[in-house]
Amino acid sequence: MASSFIFSEWPPKLTEPQLESLTLAATTYALSHGLLYLPLPSPPSQAQPPAPTSAIHAPLALFPSPVPRALFDRAQRLQRVYNVLYARVALDEAFLDRVMGAVEGVGRADEFVGTLWRGWRAVRDEGVVQPLQLGLFRSDYLLHTGGAGVGAELELKQVEFNTISSSFGPLSERAAAMHRYLHASTGYFGVSPYLRADNFPPNDTTAGLAQGLAEAHKAYGVPGSQILFVVQPNERNVFDQRWLEYELLEKHAIHVVRQTFAELAESVAIDPTSRALLITPSPSTTPAPSAIEISTIYFRAGYVPTDFPTPADYATRIALERSRAIKCPSIPLQLAGGKKVQEALTKPGVLERFLGGGAESGGYGPEVLEEVRATWMGMWALDEDEGTTTTTTSPAPPEPAGTLKARAHASALDREAWIAMELIVPPAGTGSYLVRAGGGGGVRAEVISELGVFGLALFGGGAGGGKGEGEVREREVGWLMRTKGVESNEGGVAAGFSVLDSVVLVD
Amino acid sequence: MASSFIFSEWPPKLTEPQLESLTLAATTYALSHGLLYLPLPSPPSQAQPPAPTSAIHAPLALFPSPVPRALFDRAQRLQRVYNVLYARVALDEAFLDRVMGAVEGVGRADEFVGTLWRGWRAVRDEGVVQPLQLGLFRSDYLLHTGGAGVGAELELKQVEFNTISSSFGPLSERAAAMHRYLHASTGYFGVSPYLRADNFPPNDTTAGLAQGLAEAHKAYGVPGSQILFVVQPNERNVFDQRWLEYELLEKHAIHVVRQTFAELAESVAIDPTSRALLITPSPSTTPAPSAIEISTIYFRAGYVPTDFPTPADYATRIALERSRAIKCPSIPLQLAGGKKVQEALTKPGVLERFLGGGAESGGYGPEVLEEVRATWMGMWALDEDEGTTTTTTSPAPPEPAGTLKARAHASALDREAWIAMELIVPPAGTGSYLVRAGGGGGVRAEVISELGVFGLALFGGGAGGGKGEGEVREREVGWLMRTKGVESNEGGVAAGFSVLDSVVLVD
After folding, report:
1. What is the side-by-side strand order in the sheet with B54-57?
2. Total domains present in chain A
3. Which of A67, B122, B276, B340 could cross-link with B417 by S-S, CB 3.0 to 4.6 Å?
C-alpha cells in the first residue's frame, strides 16, 4: 500500500525538558506496572538471588512507532491463516521428516535439530498418547520499502514465524498501556497529530495467551492438574512469564509449577500405564510430598542447544514429549518453526497443499493464499554440502539486515538451515527515543521496528468439537512491537539494543 | 471483646523450603504489582536520579496479621464518626486557637506549630476565600490487652489520628492483594485454618482516596484545572503517591502536577482578584508556557519542620493557604491532628460539644460517643512550664511502647506537645515473617502490628448539598496494616524496621 506518512520525520523532535518529563513519566509507569526485567546480578557471572529484591524497567521507546493501518489490520487477519498453516505443518509427519528430519532434512547436519527429531521419532514408534497440541505463535514482520523512497509502496514482510517460547506478550501489552498513559498524561505536548487515542490499537495479549493455556488445560480435563512452565535458569525476562501465571491463577484458577530442565531431571515421573506426567517438587513445601499431575507443558526454554547442557536434559525433553501432557509446543510443532520450513513453504504448490481447496474442505481461496505469499521475501536453501562455499560467494547476504538478531528467542533451528532470504529494507531514517535502565536518559536514535502478531492454535485431537484431526481451534491474540537502534546511529549509543515499543496507526 | 485466638502462636511455623517458596512468590508479586520503594541512591547522600531506572520491593510481611473481626468492624464503623469529629475540630477556630495557637496553645513553645498558626491567622484576617476543606485521614490503632494474658479482653486503642499526608493507602491495598495471591497460589501450605479467603477483608483504598481528591476537584468546578501534589525532594515512597495519580487520570481524567516547596517558590502565582492558584512549571514542556489553575492541593510534604528548610518555604505554605484552591489539608485541619488536640478531646464535655445532641442536630447518641471514647488511652498534658520535670518523674512512660516511631509521617506537631499517654500493651509474643530488600530472605520476628483506617471528609462550604457549614461529606475508604519487629527479637535482625502487612480476621 502507499502511505502518505513520512517515516523519516518520525518521531517529532522534543525539547530537553519535554524529553526529561516524558522519560520520568515512562520509567515510573514501567516500574509500577510490571514492565520489568530482573537486573543483572553483580558480578554478572553470579546466579540470580533465590528471591528477587529489585527490578529494572524494561528498555522502552518513549513514542509508539508508526505502522500503516491497513498493514496492521492485514497482519492481524493473516495470523488466523498462519495459525492453521503451522498447525497443519506440525501434523504432517512426512513433510517434517523430509524437511527437518535427521535422515533427509536439516537434522542431518544440525545435531540439535537431529536430536529433537530422533526423540520425536522414538515417541512416534512407541505411540503418541496425546494427540492434542497447543501452539502459542508469534509471526514477526518488518515494513519493506523495496528500497524505494518516500511515498513508495510499503509492504508487510515476514521475518520469521515462532512456534516456541513466543515471548514479550505481557510486556508488550504494558508497553502499549504505557504509551496510552503518556498520551493521556502529557498529550505528548501536542507534537504530533498522529498521537491520538484512536490511533493506539488495543493490546490484550496476556489474556489471550493465558486463554490458550487454559483451553489446553481444560481439554486435558483432570481436576487438580497444573500447568508446567519449563524455564531457563537465571531468566531475567521473568516478569513476562509471571504475568501469564498471575492471569492463569486469577482468571482461570489454574496453578503453575515452574521448573528448569535441571530441576525436572530430579522431579519428573511418568505413570507407566497412563503416561500421566507427574512432578514432585524438591525440596517439598508440603510435609507429605505428593506428585502434581501436569495438564500442559509450556516451554519457555528448550529452543537453543545451550538450554541442554547435558545429555540428561535432552532425555528430559524427550520424556516430557512421551507424556500424556499437552505440549506447547510439541517437538513437531517446534520443528515446524524452523527457517527451512519457512523456505519449503515458498516452493510451488506447497502452500496450496496445506491451505488450498476453499472453505468447504477447510481450506482458503487463492486470494487468501496470495495474501499470505505476499508477506514472504524470496528464500533460497543453500545445500549443506555446498553451504560454506555458497555463502561466501553469494551476492545476496545470507541474513536480512533488518532482522533483530538480539531477540531473546532467536531460534537455534535457523542457525544450521543455510537459508538465504532476500533483504528486507525498512523505511529509512525512522527514529525513536530509546530509554534503558542505566543508559542515562532518553536517546534519540535511528531505528528499525519489528511487529509481532500473536496467535494460538489448539489442534490435533478434534479439539474443536470432534471434527477430527484436521480441526484447528485458533485465534489471533495480540501483538508486540520491538524497536532497535541501527548501527549507523550517531556515536552508536543506542545501537544493538532492542526496546519494548507499541504501535501508532498511520494512513 | 474476648478472643479465643492465641496471638502468641501466630504465625504458624514454616519449613525452610516453605519459607523460601513464599518469599520468592511474595517479592516477585510485590515487584510486578508496584508494591515498591525507590532504592537508596548510591552513595546515600546523592539525590534520586531524574528518572528512576530501578525499584525495590517494599518491606513486607509474608503472613497477614490477626485482628479480631469485631474490632476491625468497629474501627471501620467509628471512622465515620472520627471523620465528622476532626472536620468539626478544624472548623472550630476558637478551639484550635486555644489548643494549638501561638498565644494560648502549643504554638507558644513550638515554633513550627506557631508559624503555621500565625500564617493561618493572617489568612483569616485577610478573609478566607475557600471555605471548603478536604481531609484524607488515617486513624491508627493498636490492640490492647491491658497487660492481661491469653483470653483477656482485647481492646482497640487509638495511637494517633493523622490529618495530613496519610500515606500507604495504595501500598496497603497491594500488600493485601499480595496476601490473597499467596493464599490462592500456595494455600499457605495448609498451615492454618484461619488463612481462608473470607478472613481477608477487601482493601480498595486507592479508589477511595482518589475519589476524595476527585470530589474536591469537582467541587472547585473549574474545567482544565489540575490537582497539585506537594512532595518532598528525594521521596522514596513515591509509588504510593503515583498510584493516586494514575487513578485520578484513568478514572477521573484529572491531571496532577507534582512540585516540591522549592519548586513552588519559583512557580506559584496567585491571581490578585480571584486568588486562583496558578502554577507555571519550569522549565516548561510547552513552547508558550501557560499557567495551570490548581483546584486542590494535596500535601505529601509540610508536616515536619525539615520540610521547610528556608523561611521562603513557610511563605510558600502560607501563600498556598491564601489561595482559592481546596487544601488537603488546610492549616486548621493540619493543626487538628496535633497530639494536644487528641488530649483536649479527652477532657470532660469536649467530645459532647463536637458530636453530642443526637441525629436531628447532626450529632450522635451517648452510646456512640462512649464507643469513640473507649478507643482512647488515658492522656495527660504536661504543661510546658513544668514539662521536663513532670516527664522525668511521671510513673507512666511518656510514649506508648507500641507506637511505630519509624512511621514516615510522624507528625512534628506531637514533638512539643508534652503529652503523656497511658501505655498500650499489644498481645505479647505475636510474630511474623518479615522480608526486606537486601535483608537476605524472610526473618521470623516478634512484632507489633498497627491498624490504620482511612477516611475522607469534604466539609466547610455546604459541600453536602447546601446544608451549611456544618455539613460533612465523609466516608470510610480503606485500611492499612503495618508491622514492626520489636526490640527483644533475637539478634535484633528485624528490630526497628516496619513492613507493609494486611489483616486476617479472627474470632
Report:
1. A36-37, A54-57, B54-57, B36-37
2. 1
3. B340
